[in-house]
Amino acid sequence: MSAKVKVKWSNGKTTLEGVELNKNDAPAVFKAQLLTLTGVPVERQKLMYKGSVIKDDNWPDNFEVADGSMFMLMGSSEKLPEAPIEKPKFVEDMSENELAVALDVPAGLTNLGNTCYMSATVQCLKTVPELREALKKYDVKLSLLATLSTEPNSQGVTAALRDLYTTMDNSSVIEPLVLLRMVQSSIPRFAQMGEGNTYQQQDANECWTELTRILQQNLKPLNENSSYSNFVDQYFSGVFEAEMKCDEAPDEPVSKSDENFLQLSCFISQDVRYMQSGLTSRMKETITKFSPSLNRDASYTKTSRINRLPAYLTIQFVRFHYKENVQTSAKLLRDVKFSMILDVYDLCTKELQDKLAPMRAKFKLADDQEALSKSKANESKSAPIVEPSTQQEPSTTSKLQRYSFENDPGSNNSGFYELKAVLTHKGRSSASGHYVAWIKKEDQWFKCDDEYVEQVESDEVLKLSGGGDWHCAYVCLYGPRFLALDDTTSG
To answer: pLDDT digit string (tens) for 287-324?
Structure first.
């Protein structure tokens, strides 16, 4: 069996496209091709596939490969120093933890008994670098006595999450036991036991909401002069401008109010095939409430528009509804498509749309320039064997344009977002089944299934839209879409 695969060469920061791999040949044959393409000697090649080191003689057990599968190649084509000051450490000599750190693979979290809901939430939130920064500034120490206590302790939850993230940066698999204990003491229903003396499965979005609420209580804003009282409000909270008009009393004055939100809800119905339409459908709704002019309950039309966009936008797919006859939350399996790039401009007030316009113009210019470059490349009759790796995010060394309004750090100034993480559910009810995190780290996607972490393609992430018993998106986390300073000649 043969396939045309991709090989990401870490030292050269390039990706080889369409490299022929035949499973019937020994790996040494494939490595010989890589020598021809990169100049890296076979003896210096460290070839990885889904976390496994590829030896010269045999492929790993249960080795499956298809067109487009991604390999990682480590090794330099340059001449090695004759007398290295420190003896180099090769992949074969590294421990599992050292290998995970060297390859920059996210750490897995051991399932402690139906705790996948918490692990998936923790993995998704870890993709927010500003949250990591805020947690590092949190100076509350977690004592041994606190970890053994059953008293609610939101500060302990925050400190345990901080410490867990630090450990995850230097490990391959961790038992999140301390965080679990702190969460269960602060949210007692998460400690309920089920059959077989194991913890009951919980709703991952409830865990997400509760963790966010706890962080809201404890984390200070990143900017000392911020108008926000905490980090969560600064980076995760948006504001609706809501108008309420009485349908039965046209002369009654329209009431306006501001409503804060930490999540947008994508409501699922027969007419909803795309996340965008699910978000739009609840921007205008009919409700019943007391009318002061009629002195009775009356029908009102409530129209909502976003007046403040957070840097990080959380979207929940409302897939579960309570069935009284079986007393459980049944799942809507309907296929609802979501995208890697999200534009919420149409959900915003006219005032906010005007403020978003300048940055959107810069993105349009950059997108037009990229489209022109691709068009010219397609017209070229010959293409190099080794192509630069395409990244949706700028490299860490490039200077980025501000993604927030200058007077509102933690906001979004364009209306454009990039998908950072997807929390999925596999099963038929929120209190059963299995939760998994799919996270983006730099330009690579990873599937974090408890302690098992593997690299996946972005196409696999987009297939999580539902429609069957496979993993389907329950919560999507979008972050700011970045624009490098050199991507546009303006600003």
So the answer is: 999 999 999 999 999 999 999 999 999 999 988 776 66
Write the CA distances from 86 to 41, 81, 83, 99, 327, integer angstroms: 21, 11, 9, 18, 64
Q: Which residues contact 194 (CB under 8 A, 6 or more apart)?
A: 114, 200, 201
CA distance 102 to 434: 30
Question: Is the distance from CB of 380 to CB of 32 less than 8 angstroms?
Answer: no
Separation CA 340–CA 198 (nearest Å)? 37
**Which range has the worst mean pLDDT, 95-99, 133-137, 156-160?**
95-99
Residues forming the active site: 116, 434
Q: Residue 408: what are its φ and ψ, rounded to 5°? A: -145, 70
Q: What are phi and psi of 166, to 5 degrees?
A: -65, -45
Structure tokens at 147: 């970890």
- State the residue for tokens 């702190």: 182
Instruction: Give the max Cα distance, the chain.
Output: 91
Q: Taking a C-beta distance cutoff of 8 angstroms, is the pair 319, 472 a contact?
A: yes
Retrieve residue 7's tokens.
Answer: 């090989």
Which value, to the nearest 10 degrees, does the dihedral of the CA atoms of residues 330, 126, 344, 304 take?
Answer: 60
Q: At what angle do helices 177-186 and 204-218 cross, to 10 degrees?
A: 80
Residue 325 has pLDDT above 60, yes or no: yes
Which pTM value belongs to this model?
Answer: 0.77
Q: Cβ of 373: how many Cβ atoms within 10 Å?
A: 10
Contacts of 420 (CB under 8 A, 6+ apart): 124, 127, 128, 312, 439, 440, 477, 478, 479
Helix (H) or strand (E) holding 365: helix 350-379
**Nearest to residue 435, comparing CAs of 175, 180, 124?**
124
The C-alpha atoms of residue 231 and residue 229 are separated, in whole angstroms, by 7
- The pLDDT of residue 391 is 41
